[in-house]
Each structure stands twice: as C-alpha cells, then as structure tokens.
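Practice problem 4.
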C-alpha cells in the first residue's frame, strides 16, 4: 500500500488529501477567508502562509509526515508534454518566476518542502500548460500569432486513462475526445496518449462557457477593442471571467441555469441550447482532428452532473462514438492517480528541464 499526500491550491482554498493507493482516507477543503488572502500583495507572498496552513491541517488531524510521495498541482510553467514530473530545482525556479502569477504555482513548491521533511519523492503532473499539439493545429492565418495549448490537462488526461483502463486498454493505444465542462470549457483530442489539438480554455477560444465568451467574430472584437469604451483589462475580463452565460444571463450557476432551461424559461433555455451547441461543434471538430477514428467521447467536469446538459450533447455527437460520462473536476483523485502510477512504475517519471 502506498500513502500519497495531495496538495491543490485554489484562489480561496488549499485542498489536501491523503490517499492509500487509490482510496482517499482523509480530505480537507482547506478554506481560506478572503481577509487572510487579501493580506498578501502577490501570489508568491502566500507561500509561507499556505505551507504552514497545510502542515497545521495535518497536525490537527493527527496525521504524521510519513508518505511514500507528495504530489502538488502543477503551475504555469513553460509548455511541456503531459505526464508525471519529479519536482526539481529548475521547476521551482520557473514557478517562482512564472510570467503568469497564479496560486496553482504554489502547489509544487509546497509539495517539495513537505516531501523533503518526509524524505520521499515530490511530483507534479499534467499542468494546464501541457502542450502536445500537432504542428498543423498551431497555425493561424497570421505568422506572428500561434494557437496555444492551455486547458484542464490534469482532469482530461486522468479520465482518459481511467476509461482506457476500465475497458482493458492502454491510453496510449486509443483515440479519445474529452470535453471538460466547467467554468471554462475545453475539448481535447487525445491521439495515442497525446493531446494533438485543444481549444485554449483560458483566453477565449472554443465553446461558450459559464464565464467565458468562447470564440468571437474577429471583426466585431477588433471594433470593440478600438471603440474607446473599454480598457484592455476590461476586454480581457469579457473573454474570461465576465463572458459566456454570465454576460448573457447575469448568472453563471449552471445548476440554476439548467433548472430554468429544463422548465422552458427564456432566455435561459435558448442560451443554454446555444452553449451546448458550441460544445457539440467543438467535439465534432476534435473528432475531425482524429480523422474520425474516435474510440470514445468523455464528458467530465461539473456540468457533466447535469442530465439535461449531457443528454443534449449526446443527441448531437452520439453518432461519432460512444459517449462516456465521468462527472466532476476530479483534480485530487487525478493527482493521486498519477502519483500512484509513478510509484508503481506504470507511468514514467519525467525530468523537467
């Protein structure tokens, strides 16, 4: 039996869990008050506070620092291929000096410190910057603009691996489309273990989402940018944060939107139909990226709990391949799954350079 400690920092939480093999035996949502977080001017300044917070959670729960591995959520590093990475000095330096400051950068830093105290390995797996896109998928019509791979790689790859295992196959031998349906929506094409194409779920590409605009008509966006009415920061917030269902309906709670849509209330019904239509179109596009040879389509993320949303998508894409529903974010389980695979020799441990 392997004991694995999992660390997943979020904006107002530092979720932690202890796994024994693939079973969670202790978890904590690790919630922080807004007042505590607002004391810090930068993400990096939160490091000591969050590290001590995690150690105190373990102490209060009576859990000794005896683990076979510690794994932290990956940060905004340079683009890299998917998989499990041993946390090393180069990775830590890049996280401290990341061009995008996000609290996820602290996951691996805290994991490394706790692993040192436990005298066990420290891992990171499948950060959002996983980039395995095929060359033809990177191109746009302008030489100085390239498509970027930023998506929910951790959950997307984990559910694809879990599904492959459940049908007695290897992830590296299958073609799978994964639609992660959350606050941001990404649809990824997995070809023989690599994500060869995916929409940029962070910066306004792909389907309409609860709080993200998705792809917009370029000419109208350009005119909006030069209208003089908005700053660059305001435009960026329209793309991610205040776009999508939030802009169209004034709310982004998908449970409420789905309930109202199912009752036929407008404009909730029409907007949700439009959002799900763009998701289905993106799934179709990723099926094309796999040359139509798709073994399965997986729907995951929080919205996959909605039977109404799932059935709508199934009705449009079910002809492409079997649709598998694996709801939830699953980040903690995904991290533990990767660490266990590394410890058991089932997943290679890669070096970050």
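Answer key:
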């Amino acid at each position: 039996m392997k004991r694995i400690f999992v660390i997943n920092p979020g904006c107002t939480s530092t979720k932690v869990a202890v796994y024994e093999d693939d079973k969670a035996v202790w978890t904590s949502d690790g919630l922080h008050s807004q007042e505590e977080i607002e004391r810090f001017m930068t993400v990096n300044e939160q490091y000591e506070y969050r590290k001590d917070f995690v150690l105190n959670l373990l102490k209060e729960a009576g859990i000794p620092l005896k683990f076979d591995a510690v794994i932290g959520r990956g940060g905004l590093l340079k683009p890299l291929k998917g998989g499990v990475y041993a946390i090393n000095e180069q990775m830590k330096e890049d996280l401290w000096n990341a061009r995008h400051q996000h609290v996820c950068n602290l996951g691996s830093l805290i994991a490394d410190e706790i692993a040192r105290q436990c005298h066990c390995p420290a891992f990171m797996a499948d950060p959002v910057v996983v980039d395995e896109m095929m060359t033809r998928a990177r191109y746009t019509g302008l030489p100085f603009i390239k498509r970027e791979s930023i998506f929910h790689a951790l959950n997307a790859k984990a559910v694809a691996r879990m599904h492959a295992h459940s049908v007695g196959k290897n992830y590296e031998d299958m073609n799978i489309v994964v639609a992660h349906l959350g606050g941001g929506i990404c649809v990824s094409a997995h070809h023989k273990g690599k994500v060869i194409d995916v929409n940029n779920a962070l910066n306004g590409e792909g389907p309409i989402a609860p709080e993200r605009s998705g792809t917009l008509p370029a000419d109208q966006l350009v005119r909006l940018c030069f209208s003089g009415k908005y700053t660059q920061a305001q435009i960026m917030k329209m793309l991610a944060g205040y776009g999508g269902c939030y802009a169209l309906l004034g709310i982004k709670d998908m449970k409420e939107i789905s309930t109202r849509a199912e009752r036929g209330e407008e404009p909730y019904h029409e907007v949700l139909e439009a959002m799900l239509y763009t998701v289905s179109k993106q799934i179709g596009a990723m099926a094309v990226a796999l040359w139509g040879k798709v073994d399965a389509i997986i729907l995951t993320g929080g919205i996959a709990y909605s039977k109404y949303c799932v059935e709508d998508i199934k009705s449009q894409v079910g002809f492409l391949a079997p649709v598998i529903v694996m709801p939830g974010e699953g980040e903690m389980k995904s991290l533990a799954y990767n660490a266990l695979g590394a410890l058991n020799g089932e997943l290679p441990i890669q070096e970050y350079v």
